[in-house]
Amino acid sequence: MKPRVLVAGIGNIFFADDAFGPAVAQRLMHEMVDGAPAPDGVRIEDFGIRGMHLAYELLNGYAAAVIVDAVACGGAAGTLFVIEPKEPIHAGALDAHRMDIASVLGFLRLLGGVPPPLTIVGCEPESLEHGAPMSATVERAVEAALPVVRRVAAQLVAQSEEHVCTEA
Predict the structure, then answer these.
(1) Domains of the chain, with CATH numbers?
(2) Of 114, 67, 65, 109, which Cα lies nearest the Cα of 91?
(3) What is the CA radius of gyration of the chain?
(4) Mean pLDDT per 10-residue section of the chain, whose length is 168 residues
(5) 3-state class of 163 per DSSP?
(6) 131 with 54: CB under 8 angstroms?
(7) Which SS3 state, helix, strand or coil, does residue 76 take?
(8) Which residues pair with 35 in a beta bridge?
(9) C-alpha dihedral over 119, 166, 2, 85, to 10 degrees?
(10) Euclidean distance between CA atoms 168 and 166, whole angstroms
(11) Listed residue (52, 54, 49) closest to 96, CA to CA
């Protein structure tokens, strides 16, 4: 089955808890290596800070995308959030050196693509200090995020399959 949902871990591993997205994606990909397959219709990748790569990947016609990232929502460190933006995320000034979702979607639009519906699975960071390791609080949240990301991705695949057209 062609992947219909992209799970994209994003963040900078050199800034403590900003490594949350890559850590979750790496754990999910490691599970696949150990024999647990990705759900049918799901592609998982650690994009890290490769925003242009993510923009090009989104050109592949995914029905939906799950972005896994550190997000500041004002909760306690390690709190997980599932965010479904109701309004389109608009880009500010395009900068090839930035890896925030607004910049990625701006590049995607510049390339002629249309962003798929997004769901963000985020974790409140404790520290974004350069050169510091991920905090123990957010490391525990990585483990807690795995079933959340799996559930969200499976729901999005099921929703996308409800809208697949087949010839009569």
Answers:
(1) 5-161 (3.40.50.1450)
(2) 109
(3) 16
(4) 85 95 94 64 92 92 95 94 78 61 86 92 95 95 96 90 54
(5) coil
(6) no
(7) coil
(8) none
(9) -10
(10) 6
(11) 52
List Cα–Cα distances, 135 to 35, 68, 128, in angstroms. 29, 17, 9
Q: Tens digits of per-residue pLDDT, 32-58?
A: 655 555 667 899 999 999 988 999 999
The pairing of strands 42-48 and 80-83 is unpaired
Q: Which two tokens stand for residue 39?
A: 């759900």
Contact (CB, 8 A) for 41 and 157: yes
Pairing of strands 80-83, 118-123: antiparallel
> H-helix or E-strand containing 64?
strand 64-70
Total H helices, total E strands in the chain: 4, 5
The pTM assigned to this predicted structure is: 0.88
Q: Tokens 């900078």, residue? A: 12
